[in-house]
Amino acid sequence: MASRSLLSRAATSLRSQVRSSRFSPSFSGREACIVRFFTTPRPTSALVARYHQYGQVDQVVKIEEEPLPELKDNEVLIKFLAAPINPADINMIEGVYNIKPPMPAVGGNEGVAVITHAGPNANKFKVGDWVIPSGPGFGTWRTFAVAHEDVLEPIANDIPAEMAATVSVNPCSAYRMLHDFVPLKPGDVVIQNGANSAVGQSVIALAHQMGVKTINILRDRPNLDSTVHRLKQLGADVVVTEEFVSSLKMRQMMKEIGLPRPVLGLNCVGGQSSIEVSRWLADQAPMVTYGGMGRKPVQVPTGRLIFNDISLRGFWLSRWVDSHTKEERRAMISSLTDMIRDQKLSIQVERQPFTDFSHALQRAREPFRDAKVVLVMPEEVVPGC
After folding, report:
1. Annotated catalytic sites, by residue?
2. What is the reported pTM?
3. What pLDDT, in 10s, does the model give residues 69-94?
4. What is the torsional sign of CA 182, 211, 177, 132?
5. CATH node for 182-314
6. H or E element at residue 190
7. How far apart are CA 142 and CA 133, in angstroms?
8. What is the CATH number of domain 4-168+346-376?
9. Which of 93, 152, 235, 257 could form a disulfide with 131 if both were Cys (CB 3.0 to 4.6 A apart)?
């Protein structure tokens, strides 16, 4: 990683660069402050978390300073406010993800930024608008970037910045899986593993708004009671550990609460956990796999396939984005941001300063995390915001 002296000097430089911008998104309140700008020279350099080869993320990603080019036609200068560290980001750097950007590359696929300057003929956005990348591979672990306006999409700036930074991947994945595989109706049941993940939390909140019940499986952990309590607050109906779901006590509990068998299963773990999800599915129900956090193959008892005719499906949000229009994606994100604004959808996040990237990365890779690590970029606070 870059030395602390480089980071310190760069952070000081960035503070002086953005002092004239005077923005302060509220990272803890319900609404974000409106961004305000004054006409001043634009910044000339940015900090970026770049890798020149695939490998272990803590070994190949380095914080570097790069110059910012002059703005050309239809280009804008954006300042990133926040960007999460997602499992897919790490897999991409390791070279095991299906998307492999050309080297060198900047890490991060998701984040929210604000327009600070516009180039000639750039009229899609105005200064102060919040934007997100329109697709994966942008490289969001950076402080500033010059981008063509066509690779950006608008996002509401009256929601917390860390929510805007994380809405386009995990909540969107949950939204699509709850809408695209089974015509769910109130009273139906969905079962999922990895329930404490950002996707899992989104599934719970969205299903609750649909009147759909959820059975949520997670690994046993030191803070189990607090995790269960938090998921219940989101709207979870049943929260059990992987050990409990495979026991006779699970069968007894299901009889007592009287829930019907789930019509949809969501799997992001694989291995034994996917076996347990499949065992509870109703006849002809699909089990949708969208991740492999357990790094083990998806497993299903043969009898469930033969006698219960369950099906195995896969979901990848990037494929959905490629096969659907920008208008469809915007409508989905708009629906999700409405829920965030109305406090019906929230992802637990842990904010970490980008200028201490090494520590943020360490936190993101620790086991039993309940919160998504979100990189917060250097900012200049406006008194009274």
Report:
1. 97
2. 0.86
3. 999 999 999 999 999 999 999 999 99
4. positive
5. 3.40.50.720
6. strand 189-192
7. 13
8. 3.90.180.10
9. 152
